[in-house]
Here is the input.
Amino acid sequence: MPTLLGPDRSGHIEAALAADTVVLKAEDYSLNDTITVPFCVGGALVGAGAGPYTKRRHPHRGPLTVLRWAPGDHGLSPIIKIQGSNFWLSDLLVYGAVVGIQIMKPRRGIGSGKHGFDNVMIEDCTIGWAIADDPESNNCDVCSWRDITVHKCTTAWKSVGHQAMQHRIAHVSCRQVDTFLDIRGGGCWYVDDIGLMKAQAAGVTPTLLRIEQTRFGERGRAAIGSNNAYYEVRNLKTDHQAGAVTLLNHVNDCPIDVKLLGGKLGHPPVANIRGNGGLTIRDYSYLGADLIRWSDAPGKRTPHFTLADSIVTNIDKPWELLNIRKSSGQCWVSITNCHIHPSGRKLADLVGLIDAGEAEEENDDVEGD
Here is the structure.
């Protein structure tokens, strides 16, 4: 039978995890120290339910399991530190910390990662999930998240380890989150069914994906390489409060390919592609002017942008989708099989190499087929 712990035993959660699956009651667990999952294969920590934080005596509070800090200064410490492999975490709320949950590998011995998370909510944290604690860290890979809620966090997921890759997220709701994915190392993320509602900070545009290179070691190895430079997001939905969705790529070392496949946006996104970057948007609704801007990098692959099978609004010509004024250098552009809302008229196709300098001087040089 699993070990059942109440709030009076909260200091014993870590010890119990070394021997058994731990089930937490529907209570607030005020922690003095990080819960460190043992460096082993397997294990599980299961609560009674997840949801936004509600005070214990509130008349509408149901069965919630809440992990939160006891009063005091806990610095940068995560509430949960997961350092083994194939660990399972479900049905609880992690509340009020700089880092909610950290996935890391402390030493050699087993391939860390392969964890599963289901019905977990992260609220009022700076970083929800921190993947690896150093760019040089190995493993921390192949994790899966399902039915996740992130609320009032600066960043939902941040990855820094160079091997932190092949992660999958399904059915996630983010509200008042500034950045959904912040990638400084690793890659190959697959996301399906995400709701992205307004950012936490006033006047801040929510960022769906921020990719920025980190280097480590004496030789300055890149934490993002060609073997993990792929991102796929399906069924992205934003509401009218989300503003634009920003996609940032600050990597010149290797080709970064991002695919947004199917979605409906409350406002048009803004995608910023730097040299070596590629963005594909397919089967989207209500895309508008100045959708994409780019800056190429000398000696690197020319950035490329593909838009297909989508609905655009409040524009008449395909080049209106390109933010020429804020772009520099060249970009391969392919805009095909798109239609204009509400007229239903087909948007002219545009396929070719666009030079921002030349196009800004004379937009008439950019012609649709």
About this structure: The radius of gyration is 22 Å. The helical segments are 13-17, 356-361. DSSP finds two helices and 26 strands in the chain. The longest helix spans residues 356-361.
